[in-house]
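Final report, closing paragraph on structural work. Over the funding period we assembled a curated collection of sequence-structure pairs, and we close with a single example.
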Amino acid sequence: MLWLNVLTDSTYDRAKAKTPTAQNIRVGNYHDFAKIVSTTTKPLNPEHSNLVIHTDGTIAAVYFDFVFKTDGIATNTGSETWQLVKTVDGWRIAAICYSSNRPVQQ
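Its predicted structure, as stored:
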């Protein structure tokens, strides 16, 4: 499965100022995400809105906006899209791509 995180311009500018070699597109995977979610000691609360699904019954695209909250504080916002395929075993995610607009650290 393809898993891409794309930093918004402002988030990328801040990352580049901190680390000159920072990249604006990061390739990840669900294993890394699961590790973060399963090892954090703070409550996580993702909120999703503006869900749109397009499908012909064989393939589908899902698009939504999100606010990812850690311990009640928005730590990441953006939009996310999933590309899905229908297999003989049911729907499977083929790709996830999401933008990251991280708030300025206080």
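Residues 2-100 form a domain with the Nuclear Transport Factor 2; Chain: A, fold (CATH 3.10.450.50). The mean pLDDT is 94. We thank the funder for supporting this effort.
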